[in-house]
Design a protein that fits this description.
The chain contains eight helices and no strands. The chain is an all-alpha fold. Helix 4 crosses helix 5 and helix 4 packs across helix 6.
Length: about 140
Amino acid sequence: MEWTQIKREMLKDPAFKREYDALEAEFQLASSIIERRLAKGWSQRQLANRIGTKQPVISRLESGSSKPSLSLLQRVAKALDATVIVTLKPESASPRPRAKSAARAAPQPKPARRPASAAVSGSRAPRAATRKQPIHN
């Protein structure tokens, strides 16, 4: 039996398909990094040196065995003359109805503003009260 047939059979299982689909973004990311790196003719070590890291970091990134930071992805993208695009999409085709927030239901009063002459620290008196008054004889 060929891999494509095995894969087709396994994807019939809803639990397997859910896990497989969940890894799609990571697979696409790893594939695009490998593709761009190879197009430049670089080894993993060469890419690592260009972004100031070690070869095992690139290996883990390309194998999908790590959860890279956005900062690392941006450094890799810059070295590969690429751009990182991060998007958030709804999980389903039809968006869920949004619940009204408590803030929209009843407007909250704004907190009272402190007078400009009030001191920052609660233990100090306002500046006007601490000024020395001229003594009249």
